Amino acid sequence: MPLPRLPRRPAPAQSCGARRAALLRRDGDRVPVGGRIGQSGGGAARAVRPVSNDPLARARHLIVQTLGAGISHRIEPDRKLIDDLGADSLDLIELQCAIEDLGADAPDSAFHRGMRVSDVAALIPGGIGA
């Protein structure tokens, strides 16, 4: 006689590293050769501690660390991360992890296709609307 099935427990919340690894497995073909992940020159894999107290400057710093220095001249508060700055889903997860490293709450629902630079600044401690 087969054993009765036990109800499934809800999955625990994933850490940033687990979300990043899951996305890499799912969208592995989207990560460019020689991409930012695992390189010592940038990316949100290391703790980033911006020196400015201005939330917009801190957001700009995190975005440059995540997306690369080549876009620093294009970062304005009304720019969309995906459509205007060329971020992809992995970049959003790295940015989310960098914000969490600053001690801020960065819920998954806050990171969406239409997210703007000003939305990132609002998530940073002491940010817009905080």
Automatic annotation (TrEMBL):
<feature type="domain" description="Carrier">
    <location>
        <begin position="53"/>
        <end position="128"/>
    </location>
</feature>
<feature type="compositionally biased region" description="Gly residues">
    <location>
        <begin position="35"/>
        <end position="44"/>
    </location>
</feature>
<dbReference type="InterPro" id="IPR036736">
    <property type="entry name" value="ACP-like_sf"/>
</dbReference>
<dbReference type="InterPro" id="IPR009081">
    <property type="entry name" value="PP-bd_ACP"/>
</dbReference>
<feature type="region of interest" description="Disordered">
    <location>
        <begin position="29"/>
        <end position="49"/>
    </location>
</feature>
<protein>
    <recommendedName>
        <fullName>Carrier domain-containing protein</fullName>
    </recommendedName>
</protein>
<dbReference type="Pfam" id="PF00550">
    <property type="entry name" value="PP-binding"/>
</dbReference>
